[in-house]
Amino acid sequence: MDVEIEATRRFYDKLRKLYQDRLPFNRLLGIRVDALNADGGTMAFSMREDLIGNVFQHTLHGGVISAVLDAVGGITASASLQARAAGLSEAQIEAMFARVGTIDLRVDYLRPGKGERFSASGRIMRAGRKVAVVRMEMHANDDRLIAVGTGTYMIG
Amino acid sequence: MDVEIEATRRFYDKLRKLYQDRLPFNRLLGIRVDALNADGGTMAFSMREDLIGNVFQHTLHGGVISAVLDAVGGITASASLQARAAGLSEAQIEAMFARVGTIDLRVDYLRPGKGERFSASGRIMRAGRKVAVVRMEMHANDDRLIAVGTGTYMIG
Amino acid sequence: MDVEIEATRRFYDKLRKLYQDRLPFNRLLGIRVDALNADGGTMAFSMREDLIGNVFQHTLHGGVISAVLDAVGGITASASLQARAAGLSEAQIEAMFARVGTIDLRVDYLRPGKGERFSASGRIMRAGRKVAVVRMEMHANDDRLIAVGTGTYMIG
Amino acid sequence: MDVEIEATRRFYDKLRKLYQDRLPFNRLLGIRVDALNADGGTMAFSMREDLIGNVFQHTLHGGVISAVLDAVGGITASASLQARAAGLSEAQIEAMFARVGTIDLRVDYLRPGKGERFSASGRIMRAGRKVAVVRMEMHANDDRLIAVGTGTYMIG
Question: pLDDT tens track of chain B, all 156 residues?
Fold first, then answer.
């Protein structure tokens, strides 16, 4: 039992490190992974001058929003693989993560990306053998819902 | 007549400078505007270590692809406003550009984002009074079609 | 006060009748409007031989699913106009409904459309001056989530 | 060689009959398959009173448009399997068609669905081992572009 719990903890640690520390563009955006379990993940990042897309309103670039929603969708799809990781080696788990890829993504920009900090979360809608579907949301630090999205991910 | 041609040239120059030089996140990505007319625009950017999203395959982050497709969709939607700019002051044209915003975006990731340089283009599908719809494509320097997308933009 | 309540009741009655009784294709599908308020609506319909799309599995045609999700998205977007209807005549409210139109729609097919009855609901994500965004879901009578969707609607 | 040509002809015939004659909801809509090859397919259907969605403007229901775009996307995805059908029995080809399913669909409603006849076509963007991506278009008989769409299909 303790072995299983330890394996589960290692699985999520590995996944968190991959998305937070090892993916160069996630590092460029300053993405931090806040929570992670079988249902999904939560990420956060801070406003920065070079993330601005609308100089008239000083709001986030739509591409930052889509990039973070894609990232939180990808980590959510990957987290859904936890049950399949039982008994796999570190290298096999890494190979499993390497196969995860976005098939397509929809982003709905609901309100201007104004704020100092933003958080994004993903919730798994369906995790099939080959394909996972995730719904995502992004909030600003004043709790305004900035954007929602849906992503389809190859997972097998 | 020369006055009109001159005004048209100034309109596109202003739009190119906005997307290439003034939007901080576009500068961070290294986006260059290559062509621009009433039917759409073309952008280019180069591979860079910090734009990588898949460390296993050394390919572009999906968020870079969606950001550039959103940018080329936005410049295409803005370019469709050229006919409405006749007789407007520089400040009025700027105000027109400031109102353009992405309503929603779909991105289809077709092939791994491998390459040294990438180009993205937008083609206007419909430019209504309030809303424009644009289809976008991204190719790698070996002519592989990396991704396609569709964006809906508020333009009025 | 009673006048206001009466006007609100009439607004929703009118909207329910439009979607359930007056739109020919909704009648062809056998759509029934079950609930309706400012946050959204709920619809139901029954399986029928001629709604089948996959003869191998005897499941709903994807087009039936997208049609019903679009309908419940449209009624949800229209319901968000309730606050604007205060003091309007019947003809003005009808004109308001006539202006509502789908800009774009995404549908995610999660599980086979198997069942005897299906229900679909919409939840408003944002109701702006011109554009509303709605998230939709469809369940089968055994509570399985069959499909989710997102629609953008012109409302002004 | 003649055997191959004959097998190819039978493959497309089988696929045309499936979509035109055997799928009940396609029959309800009156869909006719006009052309079919490895790059995609073309379908047509006629305006009918019970396909109307907007009684104010007498235009096609958005759900009819999405249903036909999904159908033409599905037949296009299926047609891309032609190369894999070599040497398969009728039953195996049928099983291949039975596995094709829509993962997700985006529809952009560009102009009112006014007209007497409509045609829809699909063009394959990518046919992978498991997943195909198709772009679709629908025109009215006066050549107006009514709608475009993009669909992702499970094909393996």
Answer: 588 888 999 999 999 999 999 999 999 999 999 999 988 999 999 999 999 998 888 999 999 999 999 999 999 999 999 989 989 999 999 999 999 999 999 999 999 999 999 999 999 999 999 999 999 999 999 999 999 999 999 999
Q: Which residues of B touch D111 (CB under 8 A)?
A: 126
Q: Do A125 and C111 touch (CB under 8 A)?
A: no
- Give the pLDDT of residue C1: 56
* Beta strands D52-54 and D59-60, pairing class: antiparallel
Read off the tokens for A74.
Answer: 């990808």
Output DSSP code: residue A19: I
Token digits of residue A39: 């249902």
Tell me the C-alpha distance between C26 and C75, whole Å.
12
Could you give the CA distance from residue D150 to residue B137 in angstroms, rounded to a whole number?
13
State pLDDT tens for residues D23-48: 999 999 999 999 999 889 999 999 99
A60-106: pLDDT as tens digits: 999 999 999 999 999 999 999 998 998 999 999 999 999 999 999 99
Touching subunits of A (3+ CB pairs, under 8 Å) are B, C, D
Residues C53-98: tens digit of each pLDDT: 988 889 999 999 999 999 999 999 999 999 899 899 999 999 999 9
The rounded Cα B62 to chain-centroid distance in angstroms is 16
- Nearest-angstrom CA–CA distance, D49 and C24: 7
Determine the Cα–Cα distance for residues D150 and A145; give it in Å rounded to an integer: 27
Q: Is B103 on the interface with C (CB under 8 A)?
A: yes
Which pLDDT band holds residue C16 (cuts at 50, 70, 90)? Answer: very high
Question: Concatenated DSSP letters for D1-44?
Answer: -HHHHHHHHHHHHHHHHIIIII-HHHHHHT-EEEEEETTEEEEE
* CB neighbours of residue D9 within 10 Å: 10
Mutate to test the interface with B, among D69, D105, D109, D125 (most CBs of B within 10 A): D125
CA pair distance C34, C42, nearest whole angstrom: 5
Look at B107 and A109 and tell me if their CB atoms are within 8 Å: no
Distance CA A116, CA A47 (A): 5
H-helix or E-strand containing B5? helix B2-17
Other Cβ atoms within 10 Å of A60 Cβ, number: 27
